[in-house]
Amino acid sequence: MTDKLQAVRGTKDLLPANFRAHEYIIEVAKKNATLYGYEAMSTPIIEYSKVFNRTLGDSSDVVSKEMYSFLDKSNDEIALRPEFTAGIMRSFISNGLHHTLPLKFFSYGPVFRYDRPQSGRQRQFHQFNFEHLGGSGACTDAEIIKLAADILTDCGLNEEVELQINSLGCTESKKVYQEKIFTYFSQHQDKLSTDSIQRLTKNPLRILDSKDEQDKQIAQLAPLVADSYTREAQKYFEEVLTYLDLLKVKYTINPRLVRGLDYYCHTAFEFIAPKLGSQSTLIGGGRYDGLSTIMGGPAVAAVGFAGGIERFALMRDYNILRTRSVVVVPIGEESINASLSLANELRQNKIPTVVKIEGKVDKRLQYALNIAAKYIIFIGEEEILSNKYKIKDLDKHQESLLGFEEIVKLINASQL
Ligand code: HAM
Q1: Average of per-residue pLDDT across 192-210
Q2: What is the mean pLDDT of residues 49-71?
Q3: Which residues 6+ apart lie within 8 Å of 390 measured at CB?
Q4: Which H or E run contains 285?
Q5: Strand 103-112 relative to strand 39-40: parallel, antiparallel, unpaired?
Q6: Mind giving me the DSSP string for 51-107?
Q7: How far, in Å, CA of 368 to CA of 92, rounded?
Q8: Looking at ligand 1, which atom is closest to the CA of residue 117?
Q9: Residue located nearest, by CA, to atom 23 of ligand 1
Q10: What is the DSSP secondary-structure string of 365-390?
């Protein structure tokens, strides 16, 4: 017996109802992109692995365990993108876009991470992503957080999410903090997981987002990053919070929020939906001023965020109706040609039309109901001779006998 073919573990087909929800969420993100002056752009799904390796952090989970990377036929090490930010920065550098700063980029598409699949966590998932390159100053951070909040509001989710925010401080504060945290975790080395012992020498900060229960307990008493802020870092964070107040964005300071990727500095934030359980972050982002230089580019202030479309889709039933259409049903073989011609004429008038030829008449009516059609038009010999068609409004259960022009008028007036 042959094995039944299945989708790869951790990937999901987007069947039409789900696809419509995804499209709706992307549409909301797109509209907000336009409102805030972001332009759509896209980078390839495949990049050289090195685009992500150092930038996201060798010791981050995404790089150390979750990257889909492989050698291609030229022996180049390629990765399926595990996020957008590093690829967009690569694009910014390789296209020499620094002369055109500031830049505001909006993107969306599939992203790949090899993690243990569960509800809200897939190996292929989809993100919408916003990056503001060349945007410095606390008001930029606040503005992009407000943009994320507006997307949640437009998706009807604002009541169910909480914005958590923290500052990771400037490079100097991060250095001091890294030393403190190294000392702290070194004292507990014997109790740390094997992964975290490795993180200790590579980047002890990453122990703070370990998923191991014992590591988590130890991390709870670790020093807070806030105790290592320089005066500038403290002032910057306070300014961000003041601007958030100005924009009427509610937030909770989470002093333990560090985010799982290495490139962040200053502001880090997440929008959390507690009802999603362990995979509850809908949107995550922050400032990453040092990323461009790590990648060999010019110094560029930058801030951005990404939202997980699957997690947005899990939050509510978007129940987006498919486009209403007209179903043309020939009654008898001799009216098939006339039906095809009528359907063609309707489509030329930009009216979505389906011809249903096969099956009994009641089955065809059922089909029209199944696809949420608005009208059904029956064509028999009589209709061909008279050039008048019986059109039934399936919502109002009304039938009329109309000529072609009148049909087009009726349908256009009802706005499918
Ligand atoms: P991230 O927090 O790794 O950030 O991912 C952003 C969002 O993607 C998460 O909040 C979550 O909704 C979704 N997500 C992440 N992993 C999965 C998964 N395995 N399955 C389903 N959804 C998932 C970033 O990717 C950064 N690049 C965000 C950013 C942009 N920072 C600055 N600019």
Answers
A1: 91
A2: 89
A3: 377, 378, 383, 399, 400, 401
A4: strand 281-287
A5: parallel
A6: HHHHHH-TTSHHHHT--EEEE-TT--EEEE-S-SHHHHHHHHHHTTGGGG-SEEEEE
A7: 49
A8: 19
A9: 308
A10: HHHHHHTT-SEEEEE-HHHHHHT-EE
Residue 276 Cα to ligand 1 middle (Å)? 15
Report the distance separating Cα 148 and Cα 142, nearest Å.
Answer: 10
- For the residues of 204-220, what is the DSSP string, one character each? GGGGGG---HHHHHHHH
Whole-model pTM?
A: 0.94
Residues near 199 by beta carbon (within 8 Å), at least 6 away in sequence: 59, 206, 207, 210
- Does 121 sit in the ligand 1 pocket, CB within 6 Å? yes
With a 6 A CB cut-off, is 377 part of the ligand 1 pocket?
A: no
d(CA 312, CA 281): 10
CA-CA distance, 3 to 171, in Å (whole number)? Answer: 54
Bridge-based pairing state of the strands 162-167 and 252-253: parallel
Gap from CA of 270 to ligand 1 centroid (Å): 10
CA 315 to chain centre: 13
Conformational region of residue 131, where left means phi above 0, alpha means psi within -120 to 50, and beta covers everything else: beta
The atom of ligand 1 lying closest to the CA of 285 is 31
Q: Which two three-digit tokens encode residue 405?
A: 């022009």
Element spanning 152, H or E: helix 138-154
The span from the CA of 280 to the CA of 394, in Å, is: 42
Distance 283 CA to ligand 1 centre (A): 7
pLDDT tens digits, residue range 74-133?
A: 999 999 999 999 999 999 999 999 999 999 999 999 999 999 999 999 999 999 999 999
Ligand 1 binding pocket includes 85 (Cβ within 6 Å):
yes
- Measured from the Cβ of residue 157, the count of other Cβ atoms closer than 10 Å reads 19
**What is the rounded distance in angstroms from the CA atom of residue 251 to the CA atom of residue 274?**
15
